[in-house]
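Q: Convert this sequence to structure tokens.
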Amino acid sequence: MVGNKGISIWFFIGSLLLIYGVIITAANVYEMIHPTMERQVVLKNINFGVWWGILLLIIGFTYFYTFRPWKNKKTNK
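A:
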């Protein structure tokens, strides 16, 4: 079974992290543009949600790119 190699679970984890990163970043950027809270959060000025989303995007893209199933692999014959 040389040619029947499955897709790595890390590729799917990278895909999920990319999706979550996009959602979290977009939601927090929208919250920065259109604030809806009546009361101010204590450390809102550091925009932790945006930074967390960007971190998930970076980690997700790293896993997605590293473990992509369509990359060229050398086969040992």
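The mean pLDDT is 87.
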